Amino acid sequence: MSRIAETAPPTILRVAVPVPLPTLFDYRPPPGMRATDIAIGARLCVPFGRGRRVGVLVGVQAHSELAPERLKAAIAVLDREPLISRELLASLQWVARYYLHPLGEVLEAALPAGLRRTREPPVAGDAALMLAPGAAESPASARPGSASAALLQLLAAGPMRIAALDARLPKWRGAAAHLRRRGLLVATRLPTPEPPPVRIDPPPLTAEQDAAVGTIAAAFDRYAPFLLEGITGSGKTEVYLALAERALARGRQVLVLVPEIGLTPQLLRRFRERAAGRIHVLHSDLADGERTRAWLAAARGEAGVILGTRSAVFAPLPRAGLIVVDEEHDASYKQQEGLRYSARDLAVVRAKALEVPVVLGSATPSLESLANAESGRYRRLTLGSRPGAARPPTFRVVDLRGKRLEDGLAPELLAAVRSCLARGEQALLFRNRRGYAPVLFCHACGWHAACARCDKPLTWHRGAARLRCHHCGAEATVPTRCPQCDAAELKARGLGTERLEQTLLRRFPGVPVVRIDRETTRRREGVDELLNRLAPDQPGIYVGTQMLAKGHDLPNLTLVGLIGVDEGLFSVDFRAGERLCQLVVQVAGRAGRAFKPGEVWLQTHHPEHPLLRALLRDGYAQVARGLLEERRLAGLPPFAHLALLRAEAVTPAQVETFLAAARHLAADPAGVELIGPMPSPMPRRAGRHRGQLLLRAGERAPLHAFLPTWLAAVRELPAARRVRFALDVDPLDLY
Ligand code: ADP
Ligand code: ZN
Ligand code: ZN
Q: What confidence tens digit (pLDDT) does each residue in 550-561 have?
């Protein structure tokens, strides 16, 4: 029986369907088709429940566990050629296994929405019109002098875009309708023209840049991971550009990942100025159609450079030549909900599958990447100086202890801002809190406004006249009197960017202050536009959150003030120290990028804190070494591997019962340590109680050997029905 079964021809389709179930689904081929005629990686429209879904064919086989009469037939095959290449499908299957996430949902995360619907994918290119085949042979088919004749004559030279027709023959539409009815014209598509190239010649590379480019280019055509560690302003982007030019010249595709959408316009501009190939942008903020077109352009190999944020790591790359991850340390590469993947890690996985070099670039590399460089898994390349006359900024620490402050600003810092402005230069003040004040409290009785669903203070947004919870998004009106004692003495405590802006406007009348945070960029202007509000030679002040840490060059920016970074010194998060150092260095790196020297002022109540002292004295690379040593001693990543089971529910008991049962199921797995259950660092959010169970392993193999069977059993727990839970492999934070 089984021998016959093994040789039987495959008749069953194995389909990944985007539903939150960790299995594949079996279907019969659509009527009249054979299973083997359908390409692996093609999309299928299949019946599911009472509706239909778009799934992807991942395999064919001879048998199904379902009885034949229960097997449904797929409704239609949507792609004749596989939409998902063999490599991409294999990489997505790796993602599904590694992050223990249903393959159907991984595919859903990877595909633009336009390709997940049951409709045909949009055709790439601009709408155009051409003569029907054969029509060219009968030129006299319209009355001479008519619009139809003029249109036929225009199109005799070849297909034309609608926009061009509008310009050449304003009356073409009526004529075209008539000619199409007679079968003389047909609609077609022409590739969207590149914007006219504004080629700018590259600067001659510095010796360090040249060495980096040479080393990486020598590894074209094979998998080779590099860590490009270059101080801020050292010209890492020039290295990417030079490499992209070389890859394109070889007819290869280049994938460039950046952490934030706000960074794509300027990088896009730099690539346009330099690179010859077609450049496509791919990120989740694009309209569906645009995103689908960019994805298809990549899949067809038309896109030379694909520039995008996190999800662009799933771009199809049939002619892959190079992958670049800029600012590789950035936390936004990690998706924090649903499929919790790390685009940086995935970029390396894909580079391996595609056999191409991958460059992870940063001025402040993650400890993970540094450890990989130390162990020799990544090859380390460094850029230690800024090209030309630009020099790294000098640091000054302002000891805040016992000092009288004006809205959180020390007199020295205010004086420094004043003289910076007097020199006609620009200052940047960094504060990582949006809103006016993090706390609104009653001076009479001590009450403060808190989110009833999170037990955390509400932030006062004074301009908007709202109290907002930065954890769950809840909003409330601002009370005029204390709800507890009815006093009219409500006061702001703490400093947000909005308050900083007000203070500076008051302190420096007539000086433009540009605030850059999630609120000001939510309106039409992006970070880039806001940074352009000040002319390069105009004195002024930028105020903002970490959105300011990156962005285009501001040659006249010579002073950076860091306000309220102390919170990062005492966080429970084991990555807080690393993050703080990265932030300080990145923000500081904005100063003095051109000819003028820059200065960085750091306000703190803890000038003696060892981390701050070490950072300012020895620099990031040295501090990172120390932090790595601490992680090694504490048994934390990158020297251990973590997975976090998070759960939330209406009552604390439901969370506890579930996590305790999950822990009990685990028994005593070899090589894996279970820590907890314990409440989350933030035990309540949006009205739900939260808890977690941490899994730690010295080696990755035992952890990944343990997780699949355990998670499958956890899913079956009766207590699982009363909680929402998710497993986070390689969690970035333990919140
Ligand atoms: P990073 O990406 O490391 O922050 P960039 O590539 O943006 O650095 O370079 C910083 C500045 O230095 C930019 O204005 C860039 O045009 C300039 N620059 C980079 N490389 C060179 C070079 N070889 N010669 C002259 N200017 C350069
Ligand atoms: Zn009160
Ligand atoms: Zn809340």
A: 766 788 899 999
Tell me how far the alpha carbon of residue 201 lies from the centroid of ligand 1, in angstroms.
Answer: 13
Could you identify the residue written with the tokens 């969690």?
731
Instruction: Please give the CATH superfamily to which domain 394-432+495-629 belongs.
Output: P-loop containing nucleotide triphosphate hydrolases (3.40.50.300)
Task: Let me know if the fold of 207-383 is the same as that of 394-432+495-629.
Answer: yes
DSSP state, residue 319? T
Q: Decide: 362 in ligand 1 pocket, CB within 6 A.
A: no
Please report, for the chain, the start and end positions of each structural domain, with discontinuous segments joined by +: 12-115, 126-134+142-190, 207-383, 394-432+495-629, 438-493, 641-729
Nearest to 548 by CA among 354, 263, 276: 263
Ligand closest to the CA atom of residue 472: 3
**pLDDT tens, position by position, 585-628:** 998 888 877 677 889 999 999 999 989 999 989 999 999 999 99
Write the CATH number of the domain with boundaries 641-729: 3.30.70.600
Check residue 1 and give its pLDDT.
Answer: 44
Cβ neighbours of residue 443 closer than 8 Å, sequence gap 6 or more: 487, 489, 490, 491
How far does the centroid of ligand 2 lie from the alpha carbon of residue 466, in Å? 19
DSSP line for 113-178: GGGTSSSPPPPSSEEEEEEPTTGGG-TT-S-TTSHHHHHHHHHHT--EEHHHHHHH-TTHHHHHHH
Ligand 1 pocket check for 673: Cβ under 6 Å: no
Residue 232, ligand 1, Cβ within 6 A: yes
Provide the residue type at 424 as one letter. G
Q: Which ligand is nearest to the CA of 473?
A: 3
